[in-house]
């Protein structure tokens, strides 16, 4: 007995809940199951010899959590405002290693539930542009929101294709 040979839509597996965050007036979606909590900005202890987007670590109820500034990582203006906050996410580094990381964002918008029909595959930008950290593009209330594979955003070198 054979099964249909048509490829399964890659967007169907992406349907679900996403926390939308804002970086310089652009909205990005992070899978809600990856989000552990949202906290206000606090003192970040710098760690020497880190890339510019790694701001340091915070003490979150006795746990040391690394903090990445998504604004710097994405090359957008990084200014602290009243709504700037840290989204704590669970990141999968390897098949058996997960860690909590803080992501500095300009603000948090909302949690949206996306259907597969609202998600488009990531467009091709050319051979030399890496889009492996993008899950797809969501159409929400007439706006486009970029869905992020947060594991690949913060630790791309540990992911395999």
Structure characterization notes:
This protein has 2 helices and 11 strands. It has a single domain (14-158), classed as Beta Barrel (OB fold (Dihydrolipoamide Acetyltransferase, E2P)), CATH 2.40.50.180. A hairpin with a 2-residue loop joins β1 and β2 (26-31). It has helices spanning 70-73, 150-154; strands at 16-23, 26-31, 35-40, 54-60, 63-69, 85-94, 97-105, 107-114, 119-120, 134-140, 143-148. Mean pLDDT is 85; it is low at 1-9. The protein starts with 15 loop residues before the first strand and ends in a 7-residue tail after the last helix. The strands form 2 sheets. The chain has a 6-stranded mixed β-sheet. The chain has a 5-stranded mixed β-sheet with strand order 3-6-7-5-4. The chain is mainly β.
């Amino acid at each position: 007995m054979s099964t249909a040979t048509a490829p399964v839509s890659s967007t169907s597996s992406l349907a679900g809940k996403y926390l939308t965050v804002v970086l310089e007036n652009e909205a990005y979606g992070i899978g809600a199951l990856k989000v552990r909590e949202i906290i206000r900005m606090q003192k970040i202890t710098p760690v020497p010899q880190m890339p510019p987007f790694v701001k340091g670590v915070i003490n979150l109820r006795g746990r040391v959590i690394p903090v990445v500034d998504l604004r710097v990582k994405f090359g957008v203006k990084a200014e602290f405002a009243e709504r700037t906050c840290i989204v704590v996410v669970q990141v999968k580094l390897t098949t058996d290693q997960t860690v909590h990381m803080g992501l500095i964002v300009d603000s948090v918008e909302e949690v949206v539930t996306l259907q597969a029909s609202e998600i488009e595959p990531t467009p091709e930008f050319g051979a030399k542009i890496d889009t492996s950290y993008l899950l797809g593009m969501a159409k929400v209330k007439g706006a486009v929101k970029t869905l992020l594979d947060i594991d690949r955003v913060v630790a791309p070198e540990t992911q395999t294709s």
